[in-house]
Amino acid sequence: MKFTIERAALIKALGHVQSVVERRNTIPILSNVLLSAERGGVSFSATDLDMEIVDFADAQVDTPGQITAPAHTLYEIVRKLPEGAEVELRYAGDDPRLQISAGRSKFNLPVLPAGDFPVMSSDGLSSRITLETNDLIRLIDKTRFAISTEETRYYLNGLYLHTVGEGGTAQLRAVATDGHRLALAEMIAPEGSAGVPGVIVPRKTIQEARRLLDDAGETVELQVSASKIRLQFGRASLTSKVIDGSFPDYMRVIPRDNDKSLIVDIAVFASAVDRVATISAEKSRSVKMAIEPGKIVLTVRNMEAGQAVEELEAEYDRDSFEIGFNARYLLDVAGQIQGEAAEFRFADPASPTLVLDASDPGVQYVLMPLRV
Q1: Which structural domains are found in the chain, ordered by start?
Q2: For residue 362, what are the β-bridge partners?
Q3: Closest Cα partner for 16 from 57, 50, 69?
Q4: pTM of the entire predicted model
Q5: 84: alpha, beta or left, given left = phi > 0 and alpha = psi -120 to 50?
């Protein structure tokens, strides 16, 4: 195998695939990237057995072939080469090393046979659905912060992607929850998505997909089966297993009868919460909200660090009450509100609170209160 490639094209392709490789691997081949040189270009593949990323780059291929080399080491070498460099990669069967040369720099890396590299099958994947890249970015960005990190409830460790037929229009919906908060974002379902199974996409897959979306074109192709999902971003593709489990009936958690409405300038509110939370106890991060006609009073008490109080204006004309929330959860939700104002809908201090974005009717957030 022998090919020559521009540094910029090589680092872009390696950057796309190498992040899926775990730093510590008990299976040596999983630390490697598969290089497949064919006439016209080179494909790069990396996997952790649950997810596979493949990208293709143009290159001058003198001798087609395949080999695997350490992914992170190769990426770091290429990253440190001078901009504009022409990089030659060569592997000959009589030398058990991959030779990398650029200008006066020369490197030799150990290799493992390409035949040992595991490849993910695409069996059962549905016909392609085409999505606007910005629409998929919105679904992910509005919801991924609420994905659970607790491994005990593994079925919450991902984003639930599914279609629903509410109001006579099919919607593609993304939902995430960790039991303390819930985030929901939806869009009109693209053509061909009827009958596509709902799947729980793992947190790591969502992170990698979001990273690849930054370099994607205007559209992304999506294929789904009951056990896998594949996203095609131009020349790059990501194939992943999905979480084998049932996502809870989240509609039971979303309150429908919360009749106390509070509208607040979200930037002012977030800044105030951030300030008073400075002295909160790290574990609970509890902030008390005293809601009164025309205003909110935020209070944090910490036996060791003292007390913080801040008052801010709000649109509210119902009975006064007090409710508590985790400050970090409030700030996470506030960070997703695109408009100037957010609406909080309350029932009582012990019931879930619904948060809506005035500028985006396709998103909903639910926060569970804390005792105050």
Answers
A1: 2-116 (3.10.150.10), 129-252 (3.10.150.10), 260-367 (3.10.150.10)
A2: none
A3: 57
A4: 0.91
A5: left
